[in-house]
Amino acid sequence: MSDSASSFSGRPLRRRSFLRVAGATAASSALLLAGCGDDDSSTVAPTTNTLTFANSNTGLLNYAYLLEQLEAAFYQKVVDAFPPDFTAEDRAAFLDLRDHEVIHRETLKFALGSSAYDTSLGETPLAFDFSSFTLTSRAGVYAAARTLEDVGVAAYNGVGKLLLATNDNSHVMYLRLLAKIASVEARHAAFVRDQQQANSFAGADVVATSGSFAGLDTVKTPVEVVALIAKYVPIPLDASLLPTT
Amino acid sequence: MNLFQIIAELEKVDPEIADRLSHRRSALTALGNFGKKMALAAAPIAIGSAFNKAVGQNTLTAVNDVLNYALLLERLEYSFYNQALSAPTLAANLTSGSAARGAIETIRTHELAHVNLLKAALGSAAAAEPTFDFGTAFSTYPTFLTFAQAFEDTGVRAYKGQAGNIPRTLNPTVGGTQVNLLTVALQIHSVEARHAAHVRYMRRGAAAGAQTSIMPWIVNAEANGAPSAVYGAGNPQANFPAENNLAQGGISSLLTGLGTTYTDADVSAAFDEPLDNTTVTAIARSAAKF
């Protein structure tokens, strides 16, 4: 089947090669992360033990990559020790969810090449901390999944407009790739919400039913998202350099 | 004549031509087919039609055209649920106070909000509202949900297909609030995906035929009784692959391209695919008269 190998062919492929070469430089600069944005020549002083996302599309992709790592790690943890009251249907669904997130994670990692932040972090993979969740019961697991999936949806909705226009149009390719993932995250969110609370697939806490934002899903900036997920991530996160408009 | 030279010249005036050609090779193949039948003198015409075909069927470029296209789809969805909620044939399943009715009312509320937001954004440029005839869509509860799945999954693909057509810097004031149009489109996009997931889940219920093989996500290009075009490829296929697409991010097949073996069900379900507006509109017209 043909497919998006072709939409990713030509310049985008060269773009990826570029990322890999540039990423090697980032790696040699200790913790300078993803400092190889297409139109980003700024550099950031290495900050020990802080995950800093660069002001570039690569920084944004690394941000998405972190989210996928977090989600994949969460589902893996659940799959490794299902709560005793999980049904066969729950288990099957969580295997799907785990697989989807792992595939997202690995696809973004591939796209980033050596610009993937963990290449320069030297801590692969990050040991995420899910101790704030109750993962020993079905209800607790679904509540946790709901939290993470809703954050993911809001994060992807916020990233789209931040991708910086590039001469090689790679930003359009990235927008497409992230949008392909985003709606699957929304499907996940709807599913886990419905399991936790019937008919809450698009509850008023995520989709307003009145006012200026009626009918719209949540949207969060990287800085807002980083604040929400900080407790799960073993090192400090700094999204302040990422584009804001 | 040198076709590569022609494409190179085109790239000077249209830097995106290589992107919009589904694939240089396929464009050239198309040219080759023409070439076998046509005299060299006619080649320029053949080139023109090959390019028209390769550039494909996403015919919307002006933002207002994109918004009116979205408005049409939202009006269709709103009318669909609004008619369903008063259809005598569905009354036994959509009883007052039931979970099913609650879900459909929630979805209808969202679709109406989308209609109102898009109308406000378009102002006087908003197209006139058509009347929708959904034929036999409400004949039975399972049939209704099959149509609902088709409309919601198509809606997700439609918004995704336009994401690249909305400049990221458009921040109009809509209804007194400044919004970013691309962000709003993405926010609607994910709501449609939530709807799709829920409708798919509803189809697993006993009243809907207990179709427990249907997942909230799209596995391969399984249509579950909906028109196969909803999950098929658009035009050009390279930009709008079918939902069973296994190639992402420059990897020709994620089944084995990521260092571990994954199933086609997982790979296809992990990504939703965009669809061009011509294919989407054809799907809509195959399911409803308007």
What does this molecule look like?
The complex is a heterodimer of chains A (245) and B (290). Chain A is mainly alpha-helical and 245 residues long. Helices cover 54% and strands 2% of the residues of chain A. Chain A has a two-stranded parallel sheet. Chain A is globular and about 50 Å long. Chain B is mainly α. Chain B has 2 domains: 53 residues, no CATH class; 185 residues, Ferritin (Up-down Bundle), CATH 1.20.1260. The longest helix of chain B has 24 residues. Chain B is globular, with a radius of gyration of 21 Å. The N terminus of chain B is likely disordered. The termini of chain B are far apart. The chains are: A mainly alpha (245), B mainly alpha (290). The interface between A and B is large, with 68 and 81 residues.
Beta fraction of the residues of chain A?
under 5%
Counted up, domains of chain A total 1
CATH class of the largest domain in chain B: Mainly Alpha
| Cα radius of gyration of chain B in angstroms | 21 Å
DSSP summary: helix tally of chain A: 8
Overall strand count of chain A: 2
> How would you write the strand order of the largest sheet of chain A?
1-2
**CATH level 3 topology of the largest domain in chain B:** Ferritin
Side-by-side strand order of the widest sheet of chain B: 1-2
How would you state the average pLDDT of chain A, rounded?
Answer: 83
Beta-strand content estimate of chain B: under 5%
Alpha-carbon distance between the termini of chain B? 47 Å
Spans of chain B with pLDDT under 50 lasting ≥5 residues? 1-56
What about the largest sheet of chain B?
2 strands, antiparallel
Residues in helices of chain B, as a percent range: 40-55%
- Structural class of chain B, please? mainly alpha
Order of helices and strands of chain A: HHEHHHHHHE
Number of helices in the DSSP assignment of chain B: 10
